[in-house]
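hey
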């Protein structure tokens, strides 16, 4: 699932820093947030539905003592929208307390869960993440935490960047393909782990390096120790983090997101030039590519679409009715900029097509003479099984309509998508280290044999 992770080890302000880190990662999930801290003797947890700033205040943070903490912001793909699915999860097992926070999607979770249930396991949530905890607790007595985690992780497939906290240790792990990002930083004598570097910047931590695909990093009293217990495979970083998901000021997968995103726009202008008067970015996700497009094409960049910043990302709303309503309250067109003009409208992606269609209607109503839509990613034709919340194939407009049909649907003069080759050029030199499955249907890890529809097993309350 789309999520953000943040953790601190060895700093007296662990929970406060985690709060700030999560604040910088809010774009990765707005449904729920949680922090678990440790003071060496016990674990302390607070999590709620809603936004980081609404959930935590000084009173709450005071109840999260200790020098280590992990935090999580969530938007659901696996498991329904419910507090019991909010992370981190905290459990007691034979050796004490353990908390876990996970970004990604386990493709064999349904299978593992059914096995575990047959053996008597009782699950508290509908989350794939909980499977890891059961596997972790089941491992034979006497093993060190890190070995338990490794034993558990060697049974799961799919994507995970995860943080695990016990009374005395923090462990960060990234799946062998490295689908989701995870970075390591340092603040004074403490260590910080985060989904993205933008959160390190906020708290003034130094970026050390990215946690590597397949790495299990143990932070304990003896300092950091890295393990590479899994067979090495070619990395498959999620290219969609560059297209849409990560914050442009973050450095992940060896690049600054803004630079890649801007280059997507440069490439897009080369592939699909337009006879037009101006370039309009679609706020906010279309901005960097629009800058690249305008620069490359020589057309002026104009802020003809204005966003109300006090509305969350519409796409993040789980309910359809709210999503549609959200589009109308989020963006507005500036008539004086657009009227009578031939406009290139740049956006990062089209998923269902509903948001873009409404935007086009708005721009037409503001008097645009021509509209040329340019999308800085290839058509999305396949769902993601590795942690980005794309809908099923039936709902993906490009899986069902040709580009010409989509142009008609949008009622615009032209429509151009970035090519897959063009996308790869923007990460040239290591283009084979990325996953492109939502654009190709070519999955690096087999999709789940069945979707983990665990709601069938658990009655929602
Ligand atoms: P659509 O027109 O397909 O309804 O929505 C397209 C818009 O959704 C684009 O502006 C894009 O920025 C945004 N978008 C694309 N992928 C995602 C995603 O995975 N999550 C969220 N929240 N928004 C997305
Ligand atoms: Fe990312 Fe697409 Fe691969 Fe999912 S399928 S990991 S969204 S590139
Ligand atoms: Mg957008």
């Amino acid at each position: 699932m789309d999520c953000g992770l943040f953790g601190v080890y060895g700093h007296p302000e662990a929970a406060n820093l985690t709060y700030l880190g999560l604040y910088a990662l809010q774009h990765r999930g707005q449904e729920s947030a949680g922090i678990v801290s440790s003071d060496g003797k016990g674990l302390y947890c607070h999590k709620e539905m809603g936004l980081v700033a609404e959930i935590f205040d000084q009173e709450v943070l005071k109840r999260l003592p200790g020098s280590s903490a992990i935090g999580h912001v969530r938007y659901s793909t696996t498991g329904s929208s419910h507090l019991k699915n909010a992370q981190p999860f905290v459990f007691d097992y034979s050796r004490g307390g353990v908390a876990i926070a996970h970004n990604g999607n386990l493709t064999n979770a349904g299978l593992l869960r059914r096995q575990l249930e047959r053996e008597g396991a009782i699950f508290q949530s509908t989350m794939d993440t909980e499977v890891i905890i059961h596997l972790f607790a089941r491992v034979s007595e006497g093993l060190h935490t890190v070995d338990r985690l490794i034993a558990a992780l060697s049974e799961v497939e799919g994507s995970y960047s995860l943080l695990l906290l016990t009374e005395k240790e923090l462990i960060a792990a990234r799946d062998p393909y490295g689908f989701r990002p995870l970075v390591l930083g340092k603040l004074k004598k403490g260590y910080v782990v985060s989904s993205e570097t933008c959160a390190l910047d906020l708290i003034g931590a130094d970026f050390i390096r990215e946690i590597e695909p397949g790495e299990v990093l143990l932070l304990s009293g003896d300092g950091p120790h890295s393990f590479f217990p899994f067979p090495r495979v070619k990395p498959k970083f999620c290219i969609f983090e560059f297209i849409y998901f990560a914050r442009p000021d973050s450095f992940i997968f060896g690049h600054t997101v803004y630079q890649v995103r801007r280059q997507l726009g440069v490439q897009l202008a080369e592939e699909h030039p337009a006879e037009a008067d101006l370039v309009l970015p679609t706020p906010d996700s279309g901005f960097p590519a629009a800058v690249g497009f305008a620069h490359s094409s020589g057309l002026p960049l104009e802020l003809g679409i204005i966003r109300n910043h006090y509305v969350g990302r519409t796409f993040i709303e789980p309910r359809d009715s709210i999503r549609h309503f959200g589009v109308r309250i989020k963006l507005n067109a500036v008539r004086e900029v657009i009227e009578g003009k031939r406009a290139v409208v740049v956006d990062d992606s089209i998923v269902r097509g509903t948001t873009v269609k409404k935007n086009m209607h708005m721009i037409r109503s503001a008097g645009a003479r021509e509209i040329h839509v340019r999308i800085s990613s290839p058509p999305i034709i396949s769902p993601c099984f590795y942690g980005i919340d794309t809908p099923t194939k039936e709902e993906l407009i490009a899986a069902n309509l040709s580009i010409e049909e989509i142009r008609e649907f949008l009622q615009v003069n032209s429509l151009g998508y970035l090519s897959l080759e063009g996308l790869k050029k923007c990460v040239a030199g290591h283009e084979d280290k990325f996953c492109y499955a939502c654009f190709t249907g070519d999955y690096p890890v087999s999709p789940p044999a069945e979707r983990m529809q665990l709601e069938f097993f658990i009655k929602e309350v």
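The longest strand covers residues 96-106. The mean pLDDT is 92.
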